[in-house]
Design brief:
CATH superfamily of the largest domain: von Willebrand factor, type A domain
Number of domains: 2
Strand order of the largest sheet: 6-5-4-7-8-11
Low-confidence stretches: 26-34, 39-44
Number of strands: 11
Helix content: 25-40%
CATH class of the largest domain: Alpha Beta
Largest sheet: 6 strands, mixed
CATH architecture of the largest domain: 3-Layer(aba) Sandwich
Mean pLDDT: 81
Structural class: alpha/beta
Strand content: 15-25%
Oligomer: single chain
Length: about 300
């Protein structure tokens, strides 16, 4: 059985221990907690009056309003509820890139540790956490739960998951929308490689279903700088046997231009759909990058 310590160092836990994963929009949960729910209850924050109907509990009648109007009205409140956080982890072949140099980690290993960190945070603050892994299709769907032992279920899947194969993120996400029956916070951890328009349409689908969406985009420094020297053999990580021996100097300018266009389209699209797009690079400690982002997010309110 996998444990948090298999993924997170004590220094990482110390760095994130005082952070919270907070939903900024109204979310839908299942118990009383720290996040605002769209369901009306009788708990924390006053919302509105409505006229009394037979069957309502008398104790919720607003007697001050009755004294003024001689009519019975019920005080309704907004219920505070737990966050339902689902981590959506990309297991496609491109996530397996690690550069090959000593001390470097693959994007998938980095993403797995980030997913473990987020799961731990949400369950520690008594929220619910779930996990979806995918490549060409949804490989594992672990529904949101808030039980203490649920963390080990997620950790086991993170420990056993391996990257490989192609993916069409847009198609997979359109399928996933129908599995997520209650609104919540969706945290996508992926390099987002693929057709940008299809990906953005799937984000719009999530938003239409009233989910809040974060995209943690994982980069290896090689992908951003393309600082290869001399003739280099490039191997496709999503299709077996596809290799090309090329001179990187001949491609660098075109590669960086296409990369810039890809990032610009993705950034503008996420902004349009009110989705946070947060870049992570594998040479920066994930706990440090996550702590910085969550601190900014908390400051925004």
């Amino acid at each position: 059985m996998a444990h948090v310590s298999d993924f997170l160092e004590p220094s990482d836990l110390q760095r994130i221990s005082n952070l919270q994963v907070l939903a900024r929009q109204v979310v839908e949960g299942f118990t009383t907690g720290m996040h605002r729910s769209p369901h009306k209850g009788f708990s924390v924050e006053f919302k509105q009056h409505r006229q009394y109907v037979p069957g309502d509990e008398i104790r919720h009648i607003d007697w001050r309003v009755f004294a003024r109007s001689d009519r019975y009205y019920i005080r309704e409140y907004e219920e505070e509820t737990n966050l339902r956080g689902t981590i959506i982890l990309d297991r496609s072949g491109s996530m397996n890139y690690g550069g090959g140099k000593p001390g470097q980690v693959s994007k998938f290993d980095y993403a797995t540790r980030l997913a473990a960190c987020l799961s731990y945070l949400m369950l520690q603050q008594s929220d619910g956490a779930g996990l979806v892994t995918f490549d060409t299709e949804i490989r594992r769907y672990i529904p949101v739960r808030s039980r203490v032992n649920h963390l080990s279920v997620i950790m086991d899947e993170l420990q056993n998951g391996k990257p490989g194969g192609e993916t069409d993120i847009g198609e997979v996400f359109h399928e996933l929308v129908h599995k997520l029956h209650r609104r919540g916070l969706l945290i996508i951890i992926s390099d987002c490689f693929g057709d940008v328009n299809n990906f953005l349409k799937s984000l719009a689908h999530f938003r239409h279903a009233h989910h809040e969406v974060l995209v943690f985009q994982i980069w290896h420094p090689d992908e951003l700088a393309f600082q290869f020297r001399g003739w280099t053999q490039f191997e496709c990580l999503e299709r077996d046997g596809v290799k090309h021996l090329i001179d990187p100097a001949m491609l660098r300018e075109a590669y960086l231009a296409n990369l810039g266009k890809f990032r610009e389209e993705l950034t503008k699209g996420c902004r349009r759909h009110k989705v946070d797009l947060v870049p992570f690079t594998t040479d920066e400690p994930y706990s440090k990058a996550l702590a910085a982002y969550l601190s900014r997010r908390l400051a925004r309110g």
